[in-house]
Amino acid sequence: MSLTLPSYPQPDGRGRYGRFGGRYVPETLIPALDELEAAYRAAKTDPAFLNELDRLFREFVGRPSPLYLAQRLTEHAGGAKIYLKREDFNYTGAHKINNCLAQALLAVRMGKRRVIAETGAGQHGVASATAAALLGLDCVVYMGAEDIRRQALNVFRMRLLGAEVREVTSGTSTLKDATNEAIRDWVTNVRDTFYILGSVVGPHPYPAMVRDFQAVIGEEVKVQLQAVEGRVTPDAIVACVGGGSNAIGIFAPYAYLPAGERPRLIGTEAAGEGVESGRHAASVAGGRIGVLHGSMMYLLNDDEGQIVPPHSISAGLDYPGIGPEHCHYSETGVAEYVPVTDAQALEALQLLTRLEGIIPALESAHAIYHAVRLAQELGPDGVIVVNLSGRGDKDVAEVMRLLEMERDQGLLDKEVEQVTLEVLA
Amino acid sequence: MTATLTRGAERIHAAFDGAKAEGRAAFIPFMTAGYPSAEEFPAVADALLAHADLLEVGIPYSDPLGDGPTIQRASEQALAGGTSTRRTLALVKDLRQRHDTPIVIMTYVNPVYAVGPREFMRLSKDAGVDGLILPDLPPDQDLEIADLAAEHGLAVTFLIAPTSTPERVRLVADACTGFLYAVSVTGVTGAREGTALGEVPAMLALAREHARVPVAVGFGVKDAATARQVAGVADGVVVGSAFINAVKAGKDVEALAASIAEGCRR
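^ Those are the sequences you sent over. The predicted structure of the assembly is below.
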């Protein structure tokens, strides 16, 4: 079976999803974006490119990733069947590798020998470093100082893979600042450098290209669900959204179906300490339209346009914006976006671990939390697919620190207190 | 096209013409509003205005991705001191009481959208701003901004870079009503070692084929010597990070401005 890359009706010729998206970047980059767009358009239908990507997906990443019926979680939720799309099975531990391999192949095709990337949780950085090692490319990864602290293991993995990790101390020292630095590097070295962007954000064509490379997730679900449930479309799909690449990957193959045939598409945003607290990363629920990193989107920014530092328990969701296609889905009602707090994600992480033996990434735990509530709402005839975007190895040290802190402060949720105390004992 | 020139464009062009008549390239210093503090900024601006043909004032922004570390740090300090978009425009209005030199505002699109493009233009006009520079707004992204600027008498400046294709240069040049800003290198703002003209002459030759406005060059100009190189080929010279570094180091900003202005003589 050979891979095909999808063609969707959005964005328009100017890289817009409704009013979102576009190319708000320094003029220096416009020719590079034109060049990238042309190269991507050609690669998309080139059998040599597609066959190589297909081979790497199967032999290197381990695709297709399983669709797993979470029986004990389903029983616990007491409603709809909950399937997990196991992107955590992918080599390097998350969906990020799909996009990185594809973009790195494109870099080689374009004759660029140096790649750069930004990373928050480190998953995209590790995936970029892995793809660069595989294809023999020089790799520089920008990472905020705060994230370097939270994700020390991933920093070591990147260095082991031969990448240079550059610490970013400007601004809030997190993902948005790492992205600024990566764009500055690209502006400076645009002639020989390929920027591997990690999510469905940034200037056109990045949001469309990353979506197309991640759409393999949803396309596999169609085939796998047909085999086990006799239908390609579940009642609902739930995925976490920071920038939104794993969510777009599982949503997009369904999003352009007619309204009556489309499953409910639900993105869980990082609500941090609560949307009303102001300490969150929920761009749809708590942001407003603005421009960052080259794209118009929902954005956490104040009434003078200064970016408001986001907060999430999960470094991977700690981003002040959300991809333009998600913004368009939200505005047109194609998808819903619901906030899930730090505490709820931490609870869901422990729940899934205890019930299924799967330690999810803190990002994915946001989706698990909502899926359990949704299962009760849909009832036993329903079918939910949750995109389990990554595994929790990278997060366990941080989770341990957080649980100890909660225990010490007497903040544990009563429902999960017993389990937590056992774990920490 | 004289008939359609806005008031801001006329004043900016007159500033370039005045410099040219004296055998100079126009000297265009840049300073972040509210730097080093809202209280000290007016004196810094006065020092620059003593020698400037045109002053570029930056609205401090949290995520200035076209700028290097010097301007980013200055912006962070100005923001921490409470300088906002509205406060910046108030500072400009105050400068207008003492100076007739044209003033252009440099900012990013997000602060403009946040305030609302129409309201932003109204406030800018009210403050006596003559023109706008938005480094993350290529002219084909949003035509509304340029239209609203014109409606409020403001000129707009867009940028070209060494990577710009002839088609892009034509498009950008056509859109400029104030002056055309040629970025000397691929990269962000900031003083560099070994600044040389490099690709600038070829880029300017291309720009002049299309531009109906003066062409200024910026990025990497840091002293009289680099200014003199650029003044040999351009109508104007933009200098930013060097002045922020001077303020930060407690150096005499007016002396540096005088020296660079002298370097702008051909």
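The mean pLDDT of chain A is 95. The CA atoms of residues 119 and 125 of chain A lie 5 Å apart.

Shout if you want it in another format.
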